[in-house]
Amino acid sequence: MSRKASSDPALEVSPELQMILIRQQLAGWLVKKGGAGIVKLQRRYFYIANRFFWSYALSPNEVKPKGDIDLRTVNKVELLPLVDELSFIVVSDARPKPYILKAATGSEAKLWVTCILETVEKLKIRENDSVARYIVVKLLDLILSCLITHFIPKFLRHSELE
Fold it and tell me: pTM, whole model, 2 decimals?
């Protein structure tokens, strides 16, 4: 796949800069297969909109994204070698159809897949940490409640008898 020139040449980046953007910010140009029954390929700029959402727009300067992929719901990201060396798939629990994406080069496609998987894994670790912290807080709350309702009154009654 050759890189198509965008309507604004200032929005184009060198292949080297594209690799840096992918690696450090999970941002850059990809071609995605159209949604809602559309089969044409659409060039979109992908970027992290916040901690959880990987958004895509017509250009890096566009304020409102065309769509989002909630990275917390991604359960599969892999290359599609039977299609070509440029294509990969992103499967989300939040969407019935997978995202089929295409990078400019095979090495870019591999880097996208690696970086998306790493980001998803980091989010899952953080989410698991949050759940673990929540459980610990609830257990401590339960222990404290149990102490207040059962042991402290018994202790106070016992000390009054002495």
Answer: 0.65
